[in-house]
Amino acid sequence: MATASLLFTLGTAHATPLDQALFSSLTVKCAANVAPLTMASIAATETGFEPYTVHDNTTRTSGVFQTAAEATNVASRLVAVGDSVDLGLMQINSKNLPMLGLSVADTFDPCTSLSAAALILGDAYTGGSTHDEQQAALRVAISRYNTGDSERGFTNGYVGKVDRHAAKFVPALDVRPDPDAKPLSAPTAADAAPTDPNAPPGWDVWASYDYQAAKDAGKRPSPEPATPTAQPASAIVFQ
């Protein structure tokens, strides 16, 4: 229990979450086989974009640390005593580290965390011949990402949480895999002209998220102008 107490004590001072520009650029660079908005929906669910998060599944304790070194120090102690620990931005489980060829310290690098998450998701995603089959396969992959099981991520509510985060990023959850598509595609006309004239375009993840959150709170801010980046229109899309 000493390590659990250490985790709780040190993990009370939060680091700054990754900002929108950095997260977007990292997903394009480090997780090219998964759409950026997919990764954003999962990161929001897992850690709220906090890169130095540690969750001990064995003791059910969590901490968000100020530095990678601090997080590595505590997480290494937990792993050394045999605990199952979720690590870093995308909460890579310690049991997966040998398979991924990573150390505990590696998981607190945001790019490495995103790359590992993309590998796990890609391995879990089986695809399908129809749109509905692809949607179902994607959610199964998300369930397996969380639990290692095709069903438990549904029953524990994890898949629903990812769906709800995605709904805040863009108007609808969708899957549009295209085996011939390039990793990134330009926004469509529909993205540039949302139905709500006050809403930011669908490709702008954080502006859409903030706008939806403000609407939920009964506010109507004017969105700041943004320069579009080459991203898919849907929140949950495997490219």
TrEMBL record:
<comment type="similarity">
    <text>Belongs to the virb1 family.</text>
</comment>
<feature type="region of interest" description="Disordered">
    <location>
        <begin position="174"/>
        <end position="239"/>
    </location>
</feature>
<feature type="compositionally biased region" description="Low complexity">
    <location>
        <begin position="186"/>
        <end position="196"/>
    </location>
</feature>
<protein>
    <submittedName>
        <fullName>Type IV secretion system protein VirB1</fullName>
    </submittedName>
</protein>
<dbReference type="Pfam" id="PF01464">
    <property type="entry name" value="SLT"/>
</dbReference>
<dbReference type="InterPro" id="IPR008258">
    <property type="entry name" value="Transglycosylase_SLT_dom_1"/>
</dbReference>
<feature type="domain" description="Transglycosylase SLT">
    <location>
        <begin position="30"/>
        <end position="163"/>
    </location>
</feature>
<dbReference type="InterPro" id="IPR023346">
    <property type="entry name" value="Lysozyme-like_dom_sf"/>
</dbReference>
